[in-house]
Amino acid sequence: MKATKLFFAVFYLVFPLFLYGQNTNSQWYQVFNKTVTKNGKWLYFVKYYENGKQEGVLQNGSTLKMMVFENPNNVYLDDKVFILRNNDNTVFIRNLKKQEELQFQNISDFTYDPDTGNTILTTPGKDISIVDNTGSIRYKSTAIEKTVIAKGNLWIRKKNVISLLNLKNLKEKIITDNFQIWTVLKETVSPEEKLIKLLLKKDSIFLTRFYDFDGHLQLEKNLPSVIANYPIYNFASSHLTASKQPFKEQLKNIDTLEVWSSQDMGLKPKIMKYKAQAYTDLILDLNTGKQYDNPYIFGATRSSLIFGNNVILDFYDLENDDFMEEITPPTFRLRDIKSGKTIFSVDRIDGQYFHVAKKFNQLFYFKNKDWWMYDYDKRKAVNLTVDLGTNFYQFNRLNEKVTIAISRLFLSKDNKKVFLTDENDIWKYDLTTNKAIRLTHSVDKHISYRILNNSFNEPVQRLAGTKSSEIDENFLLLDISKDDGSAQALAVYRDQKIDIIEALNANTISQLVYSENAVTYVTENGNEPYVLKLYNFNSKKKSTVYLSNKEIFEPSLFPRTKVHFWKGKDEESNYCSVVLPPDYNTSKKYPVIVRIYENEAKGYKDFVYPSYYNQNGFNRSLFAMNGYIILLPRIIYKQNEPGQSALSGIETAISKMASIYNIDLNRIGIIGHSFGGFEVNYLVSHSNIFKAAISGASISDITASYFSMNQNSLRPDIYRYTDQSFRFTGSFYDIKDVYYETNPIFHADKINTPLLLWAGKEDYHVNWNQSVSMFIALQSLKKDSKLLLFPKEVHVLLKKENQKEATIRFIQWFDYYLKDYKRPPWFN
């Protein structure tokens, strides 16, 4: 291992040559914001180039000077030090105070201890070295199996010994030797309890040991040999849960007769999948030695130990599945661990949000139209929002039969308050006083506040998607957005005041990274590449720290994005975005491509650089630079009229934009993917305004989709029509005429537009055979159509070569039909 020390004085002399000597001017790149220091002085981001190259950038937020690192991997950054490991296994340690840099070769991983300033370096051969902030190697050891920093100490496990190394004085304490006779089955570090927990096995002997962070043995317990039958282990406070999946192997390669029953809760494959994932548990109280069985309960799909390990939480995900809702509303039940009896249950809750408090025996769930809290100690459920006089629920699309929470619930760090989101505002509810106050006050019913803070806690054990989301009650980052997606703002709530960071405008604001005193974020819009900005919470000053792609972005040579608003007959506001060719000439007529999918108009807030590598084969900037005007409409939907709503919206958008721009109404193409692909299929079967069309990964036969099992979800696709984009008010048997009228394949005989269909041959989100069905219909009718099937691709194209292939062929398709270009060879 070799260390090299460099000084900033030298670095800044050579850096400009390094930066500008690279071939970056021919490559567009995206900016990924990663981290910012507590004082806001330093920030780090990564530039992802289109050719796959990556550069890590450490930047001074005040001087804006940058340091670039090729092929970055993991990093650490605080006010004093920056550490980066690249993909060549070189580690750079930069002292931000002294402006010195160290380099170490052949390092596969590193860990930094901010309390002592030591860095633990690990080689691919599992040797470790500890380097202090001067670059001196203070400690070495070989053949390490695991290391964990624990309150100023380093827990080191080798094959034959466990030791604790004091990271301040580097004195090592042997915890146990002759360790090779033991097998470590489970090793858990609990910062909250300040304990390191081990489950050990020797022959038929099972032993658990708890050590504190100073290496003192706190608990040692021999365990019953029965846990040998349980291969999965988890520590939960003073309990050990030993688990097994009794049906996993039994059902793995089952090849026998299947019996499906209409009385089943869900389709048989889904039931069997849940059963294969089911657990049975042996729960051991390590203090008392008592054992509790948690047997498999038919229908229970997820189980967790909560409330001081006194209660088992069971979820029944299939109990209420009638296939009509996108997110199945589960039932949950609480069982006493000792008696096994159910002590509380709730039917049909919102399956998206469920929160278990860490510090109190409370859980939170959303049912019907309200947030509820269940207090285990009081054995009482309380409706938190019923008396607040506002709505905390929303409908999924236009489905008024089902209500879901507007946003997740957040807990304060002391778990004594919760933050709730209504249609427009944020509320703080005090669980001690049972009083709520509104923190924000939207003055426009179309403008809403949403909390952006990160969640700090891990999911409850074995309960996927369930988090106890703790945030600082005196610090809220807030998104402020218009409900039509046309504008966005950013604000911070601190010290009972709201400060606007970014005013409401036509930018996308994303990639927020924050520390105690600063936040960095990225803004962009259709006419401006990604801009990295820094805001200091104390000084309330905002600065632009990095303008991306300035080496290549020339506004006069780039497509111009514009947006136009209007009000319809019912006074409802709508808008459409337009992307113009760089050399747009008002005296020339231009062919048009309409890109459709619900609300494409909001895309004017996004920067899109020209590229042949697109997951859906379409790049609006590339096509605009090829001489097309691109229309991005917003569709306002009516119940039971997804196709007709799209047609009406498209016709209005074309008419409005044709009155402003030189659109050739005889040369209009349309392209859509997924639900947008369905809309294309419908539009060309109900209108002749399009001269060419492209439909990707689309639904063409609604009834075939409705009555089929989705291979990904193992559910019927019924919910797509009753609770998703199609916005139907009933089942197929309730409104057969609506299903018939909307089904594109039933009207394929009316299609006169040349239609290019495409799909990935492993797409089971929208089954790729849907595209095949439409092609067969058109081929049987001798209609002009082509079908592209990409092997080993899913709902979008993930392989670079296929992305480029699709983009080129899509350009050729439109060029031939809209520009009268030469017929491409693949047409034949």
Automatic annotation (TrEMBL):
Q: Where is the Peptidase S9 prolyl oligopeptidase catalytic domain?
A: 641-819
Domain of life the protein comes from:
Bacteria
The protein's matches in Pfam families, at most eight in alphabetical order, are given as: Peptidase_S9
Report the record's Gene Ontology biological process terms.
Answer: proteolysis
Gene3D superfamilies linked: alpha/beta hydrolase
Task: Name the keywords, alphabetized.
Answer: Hydrolase
Which InterPro entries does UniProt cross-reference here?
AB_hydrolase_fold, Peptidase_S9_cat
Please give the name of this protein.
Peptidase S9 prolyl oligopeptidase catalytic domain-containing protein
UniProt KW Iron-sulfur keyword:
no
Which terms does the record give in the GO molecular function aspect? serine-type endopeptidase activity
